Each structure stands twice: as structure tokens, then as C-alpha cells.
Structure prediction request, 424 residues.
Amino acid sequence: MRPRTWVLVLAAVFAVLQLANVTGRDTPDTKNYLSYALSLRGESKREAAAATIDYVCLSAASKARRDQSVDVVRFHRPDPTERVTDACRVAEWRQVEPRLEAGQTGGHTVPYMTERFMRIFEARPGYPAFLVPFISLFGVTWGLWAAGVVVTVAGGVLAFLVLRTLSVPVPLALTGQALYYVLPCGTTAMRPMTEGLLMALTLAAVWGCALVLRGRRERTGLALVAGALVALFAVKHSQALFLGLCLAGAGAVTVLARHRRGRPPGRDALALTGVGLAAALGTMLLARLLHYPSESDSLQDLLTGHFARPDRERPWREFWQLQGNFWVEWLRRQLWEPLFLAALAAGAWGALRRPAFGVFLVAAAFTGILTQAGHPDINIWGERLIVLAWLLPVVGLPLLLEPVVRARVSLPAQGQADRAQSVR
Prediction:
């Protein structure tokens, strides 16, 4: 089969496997993004709240039913679906109803929390806008599932395209696509949150870097990087800032390395540095003009439990203390189960076999570390904040295996040529 056929086969297999979990993927942030999308579609606050609460509660009931079916003590008890659904609806409306009656109806999100907290989600219109066509065509449950499949499949295809742009053999490029689906980046991308779209757009920027550095369609590559950064601003402007800074830093490192070797800096590295720096500066300026929540707001949100407690008087001092404690505990847990660290090391090793490109790939993956550092909360579900770091092994591992695969492919051909010459 042609490579594109294999790409489609992998994507189709992944999509079919996801039918096993149509519900039960939501997180606490899902209801904010879903209500935003329903509001963009034209529904009133109360209609958006009703649809969102129905989705969340049906999902909770589905998980409760599955959990009970395999509980060694409670598996024979009556189906808990109706009981869990009713209790969930009461609890959710208890949060929303008083705020609606008090007139907290501004913006697009349903007021599950205080206005100060909801402003954080109001500044992220990109993902809700992405959801609108899916929930309009398929309804809420299947629309969120389909959106997850599309954005995750897109991420895998982009990993394939990055590797093929680097002239990696097709089997290894397909391996990169498969790794995206089976590693935590695929699992996280399937959840109705921004992370799937963030990873896909970050990979699009990495693909643009590969095009520029390989001298193939440089203008297209730069446009791809710039477009991905603009889209990231709409999805989550902190990621646009982090990626812009990291790409600019990678470009500066490349220019410096070339200078030390007596080589010219090159238009490719200079152009990528300029685009990254412009994106970072533009993000900071536009965020100020649009009055987006500042880093101080984010800090207070972290330290006050989503503004449930009074603001901290010395937030930065507490933040840096928490930062140190967090990374010590995080490292202890990683050394206990070192799969993530081993994958990062192997991915970095493979990436840096292509030094010019590898620096930009490491920089893009490093945005996951920065995102986690901005929220040093060890209790955040599933380590989703650091998930962008998994892009390093997704692309880096195939690059690490490339010499082995090329050797295995070239040896039989060489042996056949030697035999043919001996016959002559």
C-alpha cells in the first residue's frame, strides 16, 4: 500500500478503538469549554447549562455503572445510573442556579465558579470554536467524541509529516504516528480539553521548522509556524508565549553554534528566531490590550484554590517555595516509575542526531515543562500539563532508530549487488 494509505489505516484503527470509551472522558474543565461552545452556537445561559450538566452527569453515571460492574463487593447491586445521574444534577445545579439568579450571566461560559475564575476560560475561545461544528452536527456526546478523534488523528498525521520532511523512512514515520496515538499524548488529546489542539498546533509549528531547516518551501514553513502561533493564542495564549520564546531560543542557539564553527548564521535559523520572538512579544502585547488574566491572576488562582480563599500577600515567595517542593516530589515519583524520563532521554538522543532540527524539537517539547512549572500542583489529574513533553519521544524515537533501519534495509541490497558482480 502507498504511505498515505497506511496513514489512513492507522488513523482508522485508532478511531475504531476509541468507540470503547465514548463517554467518561470529561474532566472538571470540560464543562467550561462545552458551555462556551454552546453559547457560541447561540444557546442561552440556562440552555447551555442544562446541556452541559446533562453531559457531565450522564458521563459520571456511565463511569459509576462500569466501576460497579467490576467491584468485587458491589457488582450484584442494582444499576446505579439513575441514582448517580439525579445526585449529580442536583449538585451541579446547586452551583449554577444561585449565580444565574444573581445575574452572573456575562461572557460565554456558564457560571460554575466565580467571575474571576471564569475569566481564565473566557480568554480561550479557540477550542470552543473548534467544537461548535461537531456538537452542531452530532450532538454533545458524539460531537465531543468526534472532535477528540479528529484532533488526535491530526496530531498523529502531523508527526508522520514531520518525520517524512526529515527524509525518515516510511515505516519509521508511521511508527511516529503510532507512538502519538499510544503514548499519553494520544490519551490526553482524546479528552475534551485544550491539550489535544495545543499538541496538534505545536506539531504544525515543528513541521514548519522542519520545512524551513531542510530548505523545502521555506515560505510555506514560516507561514505554518506563524499560523500555528496565532492559532495557539486563541486556544491558550500562554502556550503561544512559551512556544514563541522557546523557538526564538532554539534559533539563537543554532545561530551561536554555527558562529562558533565559523559558519554563517543562515537565513533559516534567523527567520525562525524572528518569528518566535515576534510571536512572544505580540502575545504579551495583545494579552494586555485584551485585558486577559495576568500572571498575577494565575498565581493567585493557584495559591488560593481557584480564588476560594483570600489572596496571598506574598504570592511570588510562596510560589517559588512551592516550585522547589513540587519538582523534588515530581522527580521522586518519576524515579519510582522512570518510563517518562527514559522516553524523554531517548527522544532527545534521537532528536539531537539532527542537531539543527533537534534543537527546535527539544524547544517545542520543553513548553510542556514550562506549562507544568507554571502550575506546580502535584494533584492535577493525569499530568496533563506536561503532556507536550511527550512530543519529544514521538518524533525523537524514530530518529534514534533510523540508522538501525537504514542498515537493515541497505545490507540485503548490498549483498545482492556483490553477488551480481561475482557472477559477472
Observations:
- The two ends are 35 Å apart (CA to CA).
- The chain has 17 helices and no strands.
- Residues 126-165 form the longest helix (40 residues).
